[in-house]
Design goal:
Nucleotidyltransferase, domain 5, alpha/beta, 18 helices, elongated, 8-stranded mixed sheet, 22% strand, Rossmann fold
């Protein structure tokens, strides 16, 4: 029988006896009792710059190893590229070497990731001295079995991955990235069996990704309402990372991405407009195209047969609140957010040109502008100076409130002046659309804002220190969808008929001398909220 496994000179075959020296026997006892000692002295890892090197543990990594060794249940909230995966691998290497008849399940959000974890453990095992190794019985991409009875397997996280198996350690890598429904099913079906043993361990390690099952487990551990020992590692604990590194990383990603992936923030809150269960399942898409330094994000190119609406929120462009817009495909239900703009540096005088450019691209989309504050300027420039016709006008009725107008009559404005009433209606409609899957949100910033769009008294708005400008664009759209005129506009055939009817009405109302000024533009009235309105006559 060969001393090596399957012609691999770095692996000892099962049944091969090795006579230890006294020094080796003493070393074995030290390694058995102290996993940190074993890892520091005998484990090697591949450094991209210098090749094979000893694994020099950082202080937080030593703490992780010791906690895994002492605790049954551990949950770790750790940012990207911090060495969390190799730290876990180091612990499992020690565990299968020095424990008989144990089984370990390495589960990740993807099978490829789980296999990569196992392959890294295999490389570390192959670089151990042969006298310290256990003989190998099985060695492939998804399984290891040693002659001491220890087994380790790699699989994607699912309720079926380990069904029927008996495991001493269940390791869940990047658990926050497992779809919430799978995560819940997994814990409901598998966790009771795993946790029923007297010494079984569950180790969960992940970077946050929204308010999902990982968030709940972590939050419960912090509040001591479950049995998990929590470990949090800040990016600054990783050697080589300082403020300069932070600035460079943000420049190459975004502040939002940095907060989630390195500051390990959960992008979510309590008392949100959208229920927590739904927020857990909302996922953003990667833009297929970005322009204007990433402020314009395209998620879907215009379709020739689609009807688009653009809802516009306007700020003063002074680095505070954001100007924002959403492009919505309203051709069918579910409606779909297909493009966005968000910037706090866009001057109101320049904003209309950007809006028109996007609107023209999306089949001359209908535009609804919030005209509170400087929004009126944006609407006026769009309509009068840039001569963009598809601006949605709003009829203002003292008794019935606001509604989409054909643009004729005395009491109308080119855009909507939001009030408590319109925002309340918009919030109610948006909640229904999102929770009933009638509005698909692709944009990360929008979802991020939704997770912090919370109840404050009798209204909903952003938490202190957060923004809700992208949410406001969806509120505008949601207010609009139940309007009878919206339903006509969103139908392509009806849209054409309406346009032709507007031209006919123009022609019928014209006199040989043009329009006659009757002074109606100076007429004022108050709505049911006590707000004073000035009636503006159509300039056509």
């Amino acid at each position: 029988m060969s001393d090596i496994y399957l012609n691999n000179p770095n692996l000892k075959n099962a049944g091969v006896e090795i006579q230890w020296t006294q020094e080796q026997a003493q070393e074995y006892v030290k390694c058995l009792e102290n996993p940190v000692y074993f890892i520091k002295k005998y484990m090697k890892i591949v450094n991209l710059d210098v090749g094979l090197v000893p694994f020099e543990l950082y202080p937080f990594q030593e703490n992780m190893i010791q906690t895994f060794h002492e605790e049954r249940f551990t949950i770790c909230k750790i940012g990207r590229q911090s060495g969390k995966s190799i730290t876990c691998i180091a612990f499992f290497l020690h565990y299968i070497l020095f424990n008989k008849d144990v089984s370990v399940a390495l589960l990740a959000n993807k099978l490829a990731t789980a296999r990569e974890l196992l392959s890294r453990l295999q490389r570390a095992y192959e670089n151990l001295p042969l006298w310290l190794q256990q003989g190998v019985l099985v060695w492939n991409k998804t399984n290891i079995e040693l002659e001491n009875g220890a087994k380790i397997m790699a699989a994607a996280t699912s309720s079926s991955a380990i069904r029927g198996g008996s495991f001493n350690i269940l390791f869940l890598d990047e658990f926050a990235f497992v779809p919430n429904e799978i995560a819940e099913e997994f814990f409901n079906s598998v966790y009771p069996t795993i946790s029923s043993g007297a010494s079984t361990k569950v180790i969960i390690v992940s970077t946050p990704q929204g308010m999902n099952h990982f968030y709940k487990l972590w939050n419960d551990s912090i509040q001591n309402t479950n049995s998990y020992k929590s470990i949090e590692v800040h990016w600054s604990e990783v050697p080589g990372r300082d403020e300069k590194w932070k600035e460079e990383t943000i420049k190459n990603t975004s502040e939002e991405q940095f907060r989630q992936e390195f500051e390990t923030e959960f992008l979510g809150s309590t008392n949100t407009l959208i229920n927590t269960a739904k927020l857990k399942n909302l996922s953003y898409s990667s833009p297929i195209k970005m322009t204007r330094n990433g402020t314009v994000k395209i998620y879907e190119e215009p379709k020739e047969t689609s009807t688009y609406f653009i809802t516009v929120d306007v700020s003063r462009g002074r680095g505070q609140d954001y100007s924002a817009l959403s492009v919505i495909d309203a051709s069918e239900v579910p409606y779909k957010q297909v493009a966005t703009f968000r910037s706090n540096e866009m001057p109101p005088m320049v904003y209309p040109t950007l809006i028109k450019g996007i609107a023209v691209q999306y089949n001359n989309a209908y535009i609804l502008v919030e005209i509170n504050d400087v929004g009126q300027q944006v609407s006026d420039i769009l309509y009068h100076e840039l001569e963009y016709e598809n601006i949605i006008s709003i009829h203002n009725d003292t008794r019935k409130g606001q509604s989409i107008s054909s643009g004729f009559g005395k009491a109308f404005t080119m855009g909507i002046r939001t009030t408590k009433s319109t925002k309340k209606i918009g919030c109610f409609n948006m909640k229904s659309l999102v929770e009933e899957n009638k509005l698909i949100i692709n944009d990360f910033d929008t979802i991020n804002e939704l997770t912090t769009f919370v109840s404050k008294g009798h209204k909903y708005e952003a938490e202190n220190g957060r923004t809700d400008d992208m949410v406001d664009t969806l509120i505008l759209f949601s207010w609009m969808v139940t309007d009878a005129y919206f339903k006509e506009l969103s139908d392509l055939d009806t849209r054409r008929e309406i346009y032709e009817e507007r031209i006919r009405m123009l022609e019928e109302n014209m006199t040989p001398f043009g329009y006659i000024q009757d002074g109606a533009e100076f007429e004022n009235f108050s709505d049911d909220e006590g707000q004073v309105w000035q009636v503006v006559e159509n300039s056509l």
